[in-house]
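Request: Could I get any protein with tokenized structure?
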Amino acid sequence: MGRLTEAAAAAAGGGASAASSAGPLPNPLPLSATSPGCAATMASSEEDGAHGGSSEAGEEREATSKRRRLGWVATAWLTFYNIAMTAGWLVLAIAMVRFYMEKGTHKGLYKSIQKTLKFFQTFALLEVVHCLIGIVPTSVLVAGVQVSSRIFMVWFITHSVKPIQNEECVVLFLVAWTVTEITRYSFYTFSLLDHLPYFIKWARYNFFIILYPVGVAGELLTIYAALPYVKKTGMFSIRLPNKYNVSFDYYYFLLITMASYIPLFPQLYFHMLRQRRKVLHGEVIVEKDD
């Protein structure tokens, strides 16, 4: 949910640098994050990194040490993972463009690409594993919320509420996610190979200015479009009485989720803008200070 939180913290594939020769990369922008809960967590985590926080530095040193112990295996796996994810999202982008050129409409688009989308977005659960085993210097909580928020949008909104799959708002977040992920994973891949083209770096820290609001708008509108169906069917809701004496209303859960965007979207978005200035213009500022 390019969710709040998607635009988000370092993905599990990409915080690493070459295992034996390079130090850890600075935490990248949370371009893939999509959930409100992730926004606050990641903003806090990245602020620590931006200000040289000892906790963040300790995590990066520990992850670098773990990668060196694992040697080429960790670097090779992370490189393969990021190449695979870049290729997967490129396939998705090509399929979307081809569908629109052939059909001339967005209706039926989601159905035509849903298998590819579900596979690669669910495959991203490996990013949590990367954090758990320590080869990526990102909090397990941050990565977990980031990935689960995307999976929530894919499986518990667009997959489960089929009547909304032809809505224009679904195309909004699909386009935002796709461009964001191609940029993000290619950024990580070239960083691991120690050959990062400036354009990829520039795209990583500029595309979010448009893609992040577009993705968030698409997600919010998609959830809003699902509300009538959820309320009518009572899907995923638990009613009383039951043997567990517990109730849950999915409709109100979605309303709360939407409301949480209001305070958290500006917080993360402006944080990302600060990170952009730091990364793209930091060297100039340092030279002036010297």
Summary: Residues 7 and 31 are 3 Å apart (CA to CA). Confidence is low (pLDDT under 50) at residues 2-31, 33-56, 283-290. DSSP finds ten helices and no strands in the chain. The two ends are 42 Å apart (CA to CA).
